[in-house]
Amino acid sequence: MFKQLTEAQLDPILSLSIAYREDERENKMDLGIGVYRNSQGETPIMQAVQQAQQHVLETQTTKGYVGLAGNEVFNQSMMDLLLADTSAYTRAAAIQTPGASGALRMLADLMCIAQPDTTVWISNPSYVNHKPVMEAAGLKVRYYPYFNPTTKLVDSQAMLAELAKAGPKDVVLLHGCCHNPTGADISFSDWQAITELANKNGFMPFVDIAYLGFGDGLEQDAAGLKHMADNTEEMIIATSCSKNFGLYRERTGAAIVISDSLKVAQNAKGRILNLARSTYTMPPDHGAALVATILSDPALTQVWKQELNEMLGRLLSLRAGLTKAVRAQGSDEFDFIEQHKGMFSVTGLSPEQVGRLRDEFAIYAVGDGRINVAGMQEQQLDYLANALVTVSR
Ligand code: PMP
What we know:
Keywords: Aminotransferase, Pyridoxal phosphate, Transferase
Cofactor: pyridoxal 5'-phosphate
Bound molecules: 4'-deoxy-4'-aminopyridoxal-5'-phosphate
Structural class: alpha/beta
Strand order of the largest sheet: 2-10-9-8-7-3-4
Pfam family, one: Aminotran_1_2
Subunit structure: Homodimer.
CATH superfamily of the largest domain: Type I PLP-dependent aspartate aminotransferase-like (Major domain)
GO molecular function, one term: transaminase activity
CATH architecture of the largest domain: 3-Layer(aba) Sandwich
C-alpha cells in the first residue's frame, strides 16, 4: 500500500532548525522557528507554570479521562481572558483543544457541517498552516490583500476594499494580534471597519489569537477582538497557550463559538464535541490543568502576568535595539521593525538575501524573510544589523 507514496516534504521551518543545529560557526543565530527565547537563548518553563505544576502534582488524584470538552475551569478562564466585559460573554461557549491547531481544525470541521460551501478568507500572507487546515477540513480558501511590501505595514485600504466583497457564505480569518508571519497588525479602526462590514454584508469573523500579551499587553491585545465580539452576532475564536504560558509541547488551546444566544453557542459546542470524539476524542489534560490553576489563583496570576510582561518587554527592547543598530549603519530601511508586534517580522528580504544571511553570516531566517525577534541576543544586534544592511544593499 505505501510503496506508491511520493516522498513527504519536510516543513521548511523544521529543516531550517536541523541546518542550524549542524552549523558549527560560533556566531550563528536562529531566527527561524517560532518559539520565545530569553536573553540566554533558552525557552525556560515559566515560574507560574512551575508552581502550578507542583500544585497539580500534589493535588491530582487520578489519571482518569477528562471529558470531551476538557477542563471546564480552563475553558471559562479562556473566555475570561478574551471576552470579559463584552456582550458576547453570555452567549459564548468554549472547548479545550490540543493547541490552537486543534481549535482551528475543530472550528473548520464545524463550519463544514454547518455550511459546506463556506469560503474562508485568509490574509496574504498568513500563518503557514491556515490554508492546509481549512482545506483539509474541506473548506475553500481565498486570500485578501494584507501586507504592503513597500511600507512593510498593513495595506488597510486594499484589505478593506477586498473584504467589502465578502458575503454570507464567507468567513474572514483575522489574527487577533501579533500577525504571523508579518508582525504588521491591523489598527483598532480596521477592527471597527471589518466589524461594520461583517454586519452589513453577513460574513462571519474568525479570530485566531495565538500571541495574546506579546503585542502591547494582555488588555490591549484583546481590544480589537473584544470590539468585534461585542458588536457582531456570530464569531469564532481559536486561541493558544503555547506562547503566553510557554506550554508549546503540552498542546493547550481552546475553540470559542459566539452566537446570538447561549443556546445556539452551546449547541455548536455540542457539535464540536461530536467532531472531537471522532478525531482525537479528548484533549490532553496537563497544560490546561496548569493554566486553570494559574488563572484561578490571584497570586499565581500575578506571577504569570509579571513574567509575560517581562517577555513583552524583551521583545519591545530587541525591536528598538535592532532598529537603532541598523540606523547606526546609516540606514533607515528597517525602521518598520519597531512598529511590528509580537515575535515575528517579515523583513522584505528575498529568498536569495535570506540565503546570503545564512551562508555569509550564519543567520537563519525563514525563506519568506520572516525573522523571530525573540531569537536575537542583545549582544548580537550590531552583527545582525550589519548583516541585514549588507545583504539588502
Ligand atoms: N495560529 C497561529 C497564528 C500560530 O502562529 C500558531 C503557531 N504558533 C498556531 C495557531 C498554532 O499554535 P498551537 O501551538 O497552539 O497549536
